Amino acid sequence: MKPAQAYDNLFRAAECRAEADWLIGLNVTRALSCRYDTRLSAGRVQTPTLAMVARREREIASFRPQAYWTVSADFGAFRGIWQGKGGATRIKDPEPARSIADRVRGAEAAIVEVEEKEQIEPPPLAYDLTALQKEASALLGFGAAKTLSVLQSLYERRKLLTYPRTDSRCITSDLVPTLPDRLRALAGTRFRAQVEQLLARPLEPGRRFVDDAKVRDHHAIIPTEEPVRPEALAGDERALWELAVRRFLAVLSPPCRFTSIRLITEAAGERFVTRGKTMIEAGWRAVAGQTEEGEREEEEAPERNLAGHRPGERLRVNDAQVKQGFTKPPPRYTEGTLVAAMEEAGRFVQDRQLARTLARGGLGTPATRAEIIEKLLDNYYIAVSYTHLRAH
To answer: What contacts 24+ positions apart, CB below 8 Å, involve 313-316?
Structure first.
């Protein structure tokens, strides 16, 4: 029990929402409809959400691609990308790039620097609704509303996942004793081997997963203790359930450990960088499966099998190639990335105080963001085109 004054801000927040609904939802909607003689609507959440999509469209429309060139050298055992002062790998003009390639082609080369670092990559965070909507959009092609609908079925009807409308990515400490039973409920599924591996030793979830202070109304989305019969699930249900289970197993798995390797090779006075990884222990990555990742620039793609190279090693440049590329405009929103942008709306606001306020919750709530996107679609303010959202 707390003094009633402790909840005054909840009252004030509700009062602000009600006033905003009158000012924007009622009055602006009537003004737009009268001014343009058609049924139009505005809202305290849908209008700024539409503004973000429209702003992205303007950025794409005004974007002018800039050409750049990269130089790659083939050293036999590996390839390297030319690197200038400050670590830049892109060259703005083609002639200097061709000159570098001509100068190093067939030249003697030597490894001048080898940097090896053992790195630990912790398991990913558990899903909240926004994170699951984002990945379901990227990996399964589900819209935000569809993801929520299927999740609701897995929660209410199937009893296989916990409450979906959550903005927490942690669980509370009182749930830790239930984790073994939640894993055992998966024993009859395709995840049996991973479950047995996890149950073979005591579960020790860290504070990234178990943190009472970061759980507000509901904890992260995790499987329940209900035994699972995957064959009884509908296609969409099974796909989304497997996505959630794979993340749950990854969260409980050990960190991924690897050695990152960076080589600097010199030829004809030019420096070339090569990066790679040597896996020590796959850990959670062995069970995580495919995850959403941004496109990787080709010149930054990691090489493999770099272990064993040492400074002073002599090589020869077998070939050198020049490749032209172009800068890319920002991508159009998908329903998944738009939901994520609504959650992080503070970064689009210049006013620092407003940005800090939005940082605590963003636009809408996890439970209403899919509904807002559907409303924008129903009002023909935006349209889905090739799984992307774009403004009319």
So the answer is: 313/110, 313/111, 314/108, 314/109, 314/110, 315/75, 315/76, 315/77, 315/108, 315/109, 315/110, 315/111, 315/265, 316/75, 316/76, 316/106, 316/107, 316/108, 316/109
**pLDDT at 124 (0 to 100):** 95
- Please report the DSSP string for 250-288 in residue order: HHHSPPEEEEEEEEEEEETTEEEEEEEEEEEE-TTHHHH
CB-based burial, 16-40: b 16+ in 10 Å, e otherwise: eeeeeeeebbeebbeeeeeeeeeeb
Region of 344 please: left (phi>0), alpha (psi -120 to 50) or beta. Answer: alpha
**For the chain, how many residues are written?**
392
Is residue 359 pLDDT above 90, yes or no? no
How far is Cα 166 from Cα 340, in angstroms, rounded to an integer? 14
Q: Return the H-helix or E-strand segment holding 113.
A: strand 108-121
**Catalytic-role residue among 7, 127, 163, 333:** 163
User: What pLDDT sits at residue 387?
Assistant: 45
β-partners of residue 72 are 81, 321
- DSSP code at position 126: P
Whether the CB-CB separation of 70 and 325 falls below 8 Å is answered with yes
* Single-letter code of the amino acid located at 270: E
Q: The pTM is what?
A: 0.85
Contact 142, 243 (CB under 8 A): no
Does 289 have pLDDT greater than 70? no
The conformation of residue 127, written as its DSSP 8-state character, comes to B
108 DSSP 8-state letter: E
380 is catalytic: no
Highest mean pLDDT of the ranges 60-64, 203-207, 213-217, 274-278: 60-64
What is the residue whose two structure tokens read 């959650």? 343
d(CA 381, CA 377): 6
In DSSP notation, 186-223 reads: TTTSTTHHHHHHHHTS-----TTTB-GGG--SS--B-B
> Is the model's pLDDT at 219 over the cut of 90?
yes
